[in-house]
Amino acid sequence: LALTQHSAKVNAKDAEGKTALHLAIEGGHPSVITVLLGEPSLDLSIRDKSGTTVFAAAMTRRNNTAAKAILDREPNAAQQFDHKGHNFLHVAVAKNDLESVLFLLSIHVDLSTPTKDDKQLNPLHLATITGSELLVRNLLLAGSDINGLTPHKQNVLHLAALHDHSHLAAVLLENNVNYDALDADLNNALHIAVKNGHVGMCKSLLADCHINATALNLRGQNPLHLLACHQPSTASAIAKIFFEVMPEYPLNSPDVHGNTALLLSYQRGGGQLCRVLVTSGASLGTSNTEGENLFNSAVASRALLAALLDSLSTEPPWAEGDNCMECASKFSLATRRHHCRHCGRLLCGKCSDKLLPILKFALNKPVRVCHICSQVLTLGPSALT
């Protein structure tokens, strides 16, 4: 006190760039802190050589009394950013430091301020990424906007799906998150969860809300198309959840290029997912806009096709079109439409001239089948190897 009364320089720094207030906070001297904060010329923005302000020093030492006193004098002290573009709330959330977060919430810091980096995430985004339910709940109770978006137009449900925090899904849904929100690529949270193979998140989204499970993204793909394209190791488990929760899911819907989920999976050798799709009623005979289907796709081996045909237990849906799916002949009065009763493909008479009973379909009398199905029905799954 005597020094300040005799015009001592309160902003003077030592060799480490620390002011007297830095040292008082580090030493835990409340009376000195009070005197220094009463000095009109005190500069609270000074940083030491490590970049630490006096407010940061108070927060580091969990000296909430000093931190509150600093804020009483300089309300914007808590909004200072570090060299990474993070303010104190960002740092506390990222570190899962609940005590510091609760203190900052008690002094009503701005909850909407994004980080000043390329990600531009607000505190609730960061809390969702950490996966802390306590942080998320406290930020929501303090008034955080649950539908605030990242620059990529993702909300917290997108982020929970991306980081596989299925335990947060219920919290976000009960707080009225927009579960059908679309990001810049028109993906909803289910697209994100499926793409990354997150089983628990897929189950939560499909079972606990009415998310649009058939929404098309910017590439014209629904979540099942994405599952087939990316082939995560959990693909078959996720597909089973789809069909358990939504037995009428349109699994034969084409993407913008006419590809069904089955064709996309077959092109990538996704045998397990293909089997689940076929068992669930996927059409084997559908062609994309380039005329490609399971029977003419340029794959290394046709063993998977044979296995899928052999696994058929019920007659698949019949394909439609204007041309034979085997020889491409255009149908006319002279060239009639037929179907292979085993695979469902649309064929001309020449390409479906084999007659065989299909006992597993309870077709005890001979019916038309294509040449490939004739081989599989006669020789079994080894027919095409």
Automatic annotation (TrEMBL):
Source domain of life: Eukaryota
The protein's GO terms of the molecular function aspect are:
zinc ion binding
**Which CDD domains would you find in this protein's record?**
FYVE_ANFY1
Which InterPro entries would you find in this protein's record? ANFY1_FYVE, Ankyrin_rpt, Ankyrin_rpt-contain_sf, Znf_FYVE, Znf_FYVE-rel, Znf_FYVE_PHD, Znf_RING/FYVE/PHD
> What keywords does the record list, in alphabetical order?
ANK repeat, Metal-binding, Repeat, Zinc, Zinc-finger
Q: Which Gene3D superfamilies match?
A: Ankyrin repeat-containing domain, Zinc/RING finger domain, C3HC4 (zinc finger)
Determine if Zinc is one of this entry's keywords: yes
FYVE-type domain segment(s): 318-378
**Keyword Ribonucleoprotein included in the entry's annotation:** no
Q: Where are the transmembrane segments?
A: none
Q: Give the ANK repeat ranges.
A: 16-49, 84-116, 119-151, 152-184
What name does UniProt use for this protein? Ankyrin repeat containing protein
Organism in which the protein naturally occurs: Hirondellea gigas
